[in-house]
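Could you help me review a protein record that somebody else here produced? This is what I was given.
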Amino acid sequence: MVLVTALTEALGLRVPLVQGGMQWVGTPALAAAVTNAGALGVLTALTQPTPDALRQAIRETRALISDDIKAERKGKYGEIAVNLTLLPSINPPDYEGFTRAAIEEGCRIFETAGYNPGPIIKIAKQHNCYVIHKCTSVRHAKSAEKLGADMLSIDGFECAGHPGEDDIGGLVLMARAAEELKVPFIASGGIANGQGLASALALGAAGANMGTRFMCTKEAEVHDNVKKAMVDADERNTTHIFRTLRNTARVYKNKVAVEVVRLENRPGGAKFEDVRELVSGARGKKVYETGDIDAGVWSAGITVGLIHDIPTCKELVAQMEADAEKHISRLATLVSHKQSNTQARPSKL
């Protein structure tokens, strides 16, 4: 049995899985390992300080990708994607510079997320690139569809990072996406095993995007203490910060996150300036580097409750593929071609 979807067909994947673009985590080692496993590895542009640094990261990633994968994806859009998360800022990163650097290095797949992907999509489409836009609502997905996105990544409330402000879980959000969207979509948030992948496919998705689960693999350049904390956690070990600031983010429930929530819930609330030092990116990066899980806030989805080991990416993808196929085959056995007793009874009407 082979899982064939719009995602695998378009990008030449063996398994319909995409690694989420995670700052400080979407590095060459992880992106290459995910790609070598048959899924789509993603380099996070903003992990790199400059467009030139991204160029070097792309080269490092390609050097780690097997010749077999390169041959399989020849004639498609390439072996890896580049993530660009567009955030409001007084001094925004050089998004266009990152985009052009990636294109000049031969990358033809982009994952965009955040605010107004239009300018990036326009540049990408001028160079025959494939764009997957991640969003947290059907209305935003439809806007990205109009801007030219080839595929949408629909982020449910279960996800790590920013789930939006609508608080709609994946079960309903995926079904709504299937009703409304004209282009294919993949499910994001709440998926960490083959059963979740099979469920996403049943809801109409063409595959799944996973961030938290790929964080907890051997190739992820994240301190072992962080991975152990994820294995030891259950689905209650995350929390939301920035709820009162209308910029909700799901993070691991550590001392810093609890303090941020306390400040937000005090009489009079909190302004971003009141928590800025606690939530700085430098502190979050320190968590991954030093293994001090209370050094800062760090993203984690409720799928930590489904993570029980730290496999290689190859082992994880292969197990998910096999489990998804098993669950899909099991569902097929529930369909009977016999006429049900209800159908057989004559109507009283």
